[in-house]
Design goal:
Elements (H helix, E strand, L loop, with lengths): L3 E4 L2 E4 L2 E2 H8 L3 E5 H14 L5 E6 L6 H9 L3 E4 L2 H9 L7 E3 L6 H10 L3 E4 L2 H13 L4 E8 L21 E2 L3 H8 L5 E7 L9 H20 L6 E3 L13 H8 L9 E4 L3 H4 L3 E13 L2 E6 L8 H5 L5 E3 L7 E7 L8 E9 L6 E4 L20 E6 L2 E6 L4 H5 L5
Bound molecules: pyridoxal-5'-phosphate (PLP).
Length: 410
């Protein structure tokens, strides 16, 4: 069994009891299954095997170096969205020819770093950015390979905060203007316009927006190639959801590949959540059981600063005891210690009645978990542990108070 499941009544990660990890490393603690990460990457990669392709893992989902390095060894590329992620991906051993650089607000320094690295593609999101990339490349005597991120005005039917392909969203260039932007590039000596890209949202459960995006991109790529542009790649972005009712990687590939398969372009995909989301949990310890005016609260030691998704998006993440579940159940909220009412992981949920000191596992926390953690309420960010071949190792230590004050001055 890879990933998380019960053995002798105890919740384990690749055979290692989570209670043991909480005892050894403290809580809150992120725990990842190396085997589950490998398995989801391989499955995703295999789903696209029918076409020339590259899976550019979206580093924003989880940019821990050990995870990036692991994916690099499996042949992954990366989708990065900042100079920091670019450095992290390169340091983890992902070669520049496998990295695409997205983002609506790249700074001059970030553009220069992308150009200098010689990336597979810089994804430009405006004419002004295109001019800047060209100028940076021309100044250093190179030509940058660029793909245009287009906004196809497609509703991903996901949470509004993570829908990115609607005309009102800040991302990309209106697909109707794509040709005009490509034409503009003919006067720019530092860019080679070799691809198109779109990413319409995240945590998508519905295949319609995904297949429509692929169709729009395919049509656009064909017309641009016919107009003489050296199109090599069509990048359909990421966005595949996880959890109950999620599309499998095979169903996802079946939704996006039909318009692309007959074309002479390499297909790029940028999954983040689908690779690491299910491969991680956040362990937290029960501090108090509280009952006020008929309402129960399980107060745990992880807060919204450690794992933001429930507070930010109202995301529901299953929670279960790491130890043997009690036979009694409780109707309760599970809340953190942060001074915000929004600091809740579950509301009005039925859980096996925990006791003070019990360890709970918050599931599907491998993506957009630690990367979104903050020091709000002056709380140190949690440690991260990777379970690999039955052994656990710390891949990021827990922050200490000294880490938080280190950059301060009087
Ligand atoms: C450009 C781009 N690509 C890929 C992703 C990854 O999305 P997901 O983790 O939902 O697959 C994102 C997420 O925001 C993104 O903005």
């Amino acid at each position: 069994m890879t990933g998380f499941g019960r053995r002798d009544g105890l919740l384990v990660c690749d055979g290692v009891p989570l209670e043991t990890l909480a005892r050894d490393h403290g809580t809150p603690l992120y725990v990842y299954s190396g085997a589950a990460i490998d398995e989801s990457f391989r499955r995703f990669d295999a789903a696209f095997a029918a076409v020339p392709h590259l899976v550019c893992y979206a580093a924003k989902a989880n940019s821990a170096r050990a995870i990036l390095a692991r994916l690099a060894r499996l042949g992954a590329g990366a989708d990065v969205v900042s100079g920091g992620e670019l450095r992290a991906a390169l340091a983890a051993g992902i070669s520049p020819e496998r990295i695409v650089f997205s983002g609506v607000g790249k700074t001059d320094d970030e553009i220069a770093a992308g150009v200098a690295a010689g990336l597979l593609a810089i994804h430009v999101e405006s004419v002004r950015e295109l001019e800047k990339v060209s100028a940076a490349a021309a100044a250093s005597g190179t030509v940058a390979r660029v793909a245009l991120r287009v906004n196809p005005d497609i509703d991903a039917r996901s949470h509004p905060h993570i829908s990115t392909g609607l005309s009102e969203n800040k991302f990309g260039v209106d697909i109707a203007r794509a040709r005009e932007v490509f034409e503009r590039s003919r006067a720019l000596p530092g860019v080679r316009m070799a691809g198109v890209q779109a990413h319409v949202g995240s945590q998508i459960f519905d295949e319609a927006p995904l297949s429509r995006t692929a169709c729009e991109l395919a049509t656009l790529a064909v017309s641009l190639a016919a107009a003489g542009f050296p199109i090599e790649t069509v990048d359909v972005g990421g966005g595949l959801g996880i959890g109950d009712g999620a599309l499998t990687p095979e169903a996802y590939a079946a939704a996006v590949l039909p318009p692309l398969r007959p074309l002479p372009f390499r297909v790029l995909v940028e999954p983040g959540r689908a690779i690491v989301g299910r491969a991680g949990v956040l362990l937290t310890r029960v501090l108090y059981l509280k009952r006020e005016r008929e309402k129960n609260f399980v107060v745990v030691d992880a807060g919204m600063n450690d794992f933001l998704r429930p507070a930010l998006y109202g995301a529901a993440h299953a929670i279960e005891p790491a130890g043997r579940p009690s036979d009694e159940s409780v109707f309760t909220d599970v809340v953190g210690p942060v001074c915000e009412t929004g600091d809740a992981f579950l509301r009005d949920a039925v859980l096996p009645l925990p006791r003070e000191g019990d360890v709970l596992a918050i599931h599907d926390a491998g993506a957009y978990g630690h990367v979104m953690a903050s020091n709000y309420n002056f709380r140190p960010r949690p440690a991260e542990v990777l379970v690999d071949g039955g052994a656990a190792r710390v891949i990021r230590r827990r922050e200490a108070h000294e880490d938080l004050v280190r950059l301060e001055a009087e």
